[in-house]
Please model this.
Amino acid sequence: MKVALVHDYLTEMGGAERVVESLMSIFPEAPVYTSIYNPEVSSDRFSADNVRTSFMQQLTTGKESSKRLFPLFPLAFRGFDLAGFDVVLSSSSGFAHHVRPRREALHVCYCHTPPRFLWQSDLYFARQPQIRQLLGPVLPSFRRRDLQAARLVDAYVANSATVARRIEQTYGRKAEIIHPPVETSAFEPSTERSGRFLVVSRLLPYKRIGLAVEAATRASLPLDVIGDGPARPKLEQAAGPTVRFLGRQDDEVVRHAMARCIALVVPGSEDFGLTPVEAHASGRPVVAFASG
Model:
């Protein structure tokens, strides 16, 4: 049985990419098909030996700069030749499920969420009204294509009950729930305390890190923000002297900070939320938005 893995893009390391790494452990011989691959920010598990990229690789390697190429993503995934595979496992919060396996093959989609930029565009582009306005006229067409692609998937797997409901509401499809794997054994409680609150997240508008930054600034509370992303400049501009931006850090630094923080702060509506589980494994409380 020949298996192919498909993922939206490998231009960052988040929870979805960890799921792909787990699938690679189960199917070590399976190649990973993706639209764009940036080895500088991907883990060592991904390499030129096991990653197959689309024509978009020649146009950009950064997720943010690829936003201008938005219309090309469906074409990129439909263009992959998967005729030699019996099973296709797509990991999708974007267009990975648009791949076209051969008719006899089984296509299972592990869905992190239906694409936010299509189905939750007001939230996704909340701080980018110009982009939302530009995409407005073409969104209905892309939604129709997305629904067509979803109908061709043989089975859906959701990472949480929240996403399973979203899949049913968006696509009219039932989904089995399989939570993402979390390596809880790598996290240990500590008796030491940093005296600071902690955010660990990609700095994207829909993550709403600005709420945590604003709250810490107004209340003069100590807050460390680990992570990077396009929202960072605006967040830094809005932050007061008690907020520190530490950028992207390796796993050891994250584990150290998480075990010693006052509490982990999660201001966004998470699809599953790996970091809160890691915080609990570290023996620390979580202050989270009551949604997701």
User: Anything to note?
Assistant: The two ends are 36 Å apart (CA to CA).
